[in-house]
């Protein structure tokens, strides 16, 4: 974070250079990439490691997760090569037997098509989506799980749960009404 701040100051100080402007835009895009990927990975971590902190039934969450992980491994194994390009991965996942993966591949295609392939815009949409999703997931009636989480040092979602609870938002229905 400190390095990014220093980099932006250097870029702003040399803003007459066309390459500097390019790097500044790239740094801004990098921020949205970081937000989108970190929140996405955090949600995957919650599903895999802390399903008790999520609103859905733990057994259902675990079953869905295991099914998707197995299918992703199976489908991507068919995509030859150690590095799979986005287009090839999307095509492979779109042909999956798993409805969740097919929907994900279709949504990815729709997003890139609607935004005309503008990578920066795609990452902005993804960053906003994951930020809104984590806020949507945070309200929970499972006080015991969050109390245990706080006792162990807390999870980010537990901090959000506490903040939303303090604001009087204790269920997703109330969250939607506040939006």
TrEMBL record:
PANTHER family: OS01G0798800 PROTEIN-RELATED (PTHR31325). This is DUF4220 domain-containing protein. The lineage of its organism: Eukaryota, Viridiplantae, Streptophyta, Embryophyta, Tracheophyta.
């Amino acid at each position: 974070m400190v390095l990014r701040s220093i980099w932006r100051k250097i870029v702003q100080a040399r803003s007459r250079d066309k390459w500097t402007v390019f790097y500044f835009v790239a740094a801004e895009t990098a921020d949205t990439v970081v937000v989108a990927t970190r929140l996405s990975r955090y949600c995957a971590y919650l599903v895999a490691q802390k399903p008790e902190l999520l609103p859905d039934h733990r057994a259902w969450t675990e079953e869905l997760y295991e099914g998707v992980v197995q299918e992703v491994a199976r489908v991507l194994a068919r995509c030859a090569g150690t590095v799979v390009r986005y287009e090839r991965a999307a095509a492979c996942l779109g042909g999956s037997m798993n409805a969740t993966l097919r929907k994900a591949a279709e949504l990815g295609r729709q997003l890139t098509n609607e935004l005309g392939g503008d990578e920066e815009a795609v990452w902005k949409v993804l960053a906003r989506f994951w930020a809104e999703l984590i806020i949507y997931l945070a309200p929970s009636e499972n006080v015991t799980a969050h109390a245990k989480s706080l006792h162990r040092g807390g999870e980010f979602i537990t901090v959000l749960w506490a903040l939303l609870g303090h604001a009087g938002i204790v269920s997703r229905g109330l969250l939607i009404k506040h939006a």
